[in-house]
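Help! Submission page says 'invalid entity' but I think these are all valid:
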Amino acid sequence: YRHGEPSEVIVQTPNGAVPFGEHHPLVFVAGPCSVENEAMIVETAVRVKAAGAQFLRGGAYKPRTSPYAFQGHGESALELLAAARDASGLGIITEVMDTADIEKIAEVADVLQVGARNMQNFSLLKKIGAQEKPVLLKRGMSATIEEWLMAAEYIMAAGNPNVILCERGVRTFDRQYARNTLDLSAIPVLRELTHLPIMIDPSHGTGRYQYVPAMAKAAIAAGADSLMIEVHPNPAKALSDGPQSLTPERFDRLMQELSVIGKAV
Ligand code: PEP
Ligand code: MN
């Protein structure tokens, strides 16, 4: 089937409305995997803003594989995100893991993220669809395109049309050199199948900071509407996902390289 007009998801941020969509400029989302403390989140926000990002990402509630790994600071990290929002003017994107947290997260976040591990958490999708903040729906690590689009339908059927899809790498047979396989072919496939805006996350998609610039460029060339990139002021000391995080300097350099590629809108 062919859809009609591409939808635009317009997100209100302190710096004004930012539209995501096929006919809008690229939108850049950057920040650490986890919100660790006030100094690091504010510093990261100010630096990625200066480099050209419109949104700060950062997890307060983290879906970690091991229960003994850092789980995120939870509610207190939401306050730190609010401080970073005030300091930078950036919009905030952060993950919701539990339906019980939606309301308090929505007080701080401009976009609510549903993570890969919750893509088919249908009760979460229904509740997040019944509130007004735009939603970023990451692709499950083994989800088909059809399952992903149906997960988006759950949100929209519950009343919220403002859904952004984010490809973050899928599992394939070889995880020795890259954490996941970034499915860039999803971009033209989604363009044909859905009107929704398309974001690419080359950080989780590769798991290594060295590979992020090449895949960011490839994503733009393939037609992505937005990029999500993990940035940490000191990746070696990061509490989560340090190996795939760019330093603010590397992010700034990448943004300069990307500015010459651009996007046909
Ligand atoms: C994240 O973006 O912080 C994250 C946990 O990603 P994913 O759900 O794609 O693994
Ligand atoms: Mn991460």
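Support: the input was valid. A stray whitespace character was the problem, and the output above is from the cleaned input. The mean pLDDT is 97.
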